[in-house]
């Protein structure tokens, strides 16, 4: 997969999450527990889309900055996955 395909996939995912949050904002304003969980999961997914692009971009490049981006980004994504499932 090339960088453009990864960027498009992550951008489409981010746009869908933003659209989902926008369309549910009236229901989420009720401040019920399940809507708060939904909001947190959606926010974590949006962050994962952004992080995934930067991790994909830095994969295979040399340097301490790219290594740090890879390690931190992959750590976030691997920790976030079980949180999605449990929530």
Describe the structure.
- With 87 residues, this protein is mainly alpha-helical.
- It has one domain (3-86).
- The protein is 85% helix and 0% strand.
- It contains four helices and no strands.
- Helix 1 (3-23) packs antiparallel against helix 3 and helix 3 runs antiparallel to helix 4 (64-86).
- The chain is elongated, with a radius of gyration of 15 Å.
- The protein starts with a helix and ends with a helix.
- The mean pLDDT is 89.
> What is the radius of gyration computed over CA atoms, rounded to a whole number of angstroms?
15 Å
Helix % is over 70%
Tally of helical segments: 4
Overall domain count: 1
Question: Major sheet, described briefly?
Answer: none
The global form is elongated
Average pLDDT works out at 89
User: How many β-strand stretches?
Assistant: 0
Strand content: under 5%
Which class do the helix and strand fractions yield? mainly alpha
Low-confidence runs of at least 5 consecutive residues: none
Q: What is the string of helix and strand elements?
A: HHHH
Report the end-to-end length measured between terminal Cα atoms: 31 Å
Keywords:
87 residues; elongated; 4 helices; mainly alpha
């Amino acid at each position: 997969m090339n960088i453009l395909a990864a960027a498009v996939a992550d951008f489409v995912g981010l746009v869908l999450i933003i659209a989902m949050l926008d369309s549910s904002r009236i229901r989420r304003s009720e401040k019920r527990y399940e809507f708060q969980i939904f909001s947190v999961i959606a926010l974590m997914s949006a962050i994962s889309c952004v992080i995934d692009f930067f991790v994909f971009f830095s994969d295979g490049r040399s340097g301490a900055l790219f290594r740090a981006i890879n390690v931190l980004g992959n750590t976030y994504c691997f920790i976030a996955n079980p949180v999605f499932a449990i929530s």
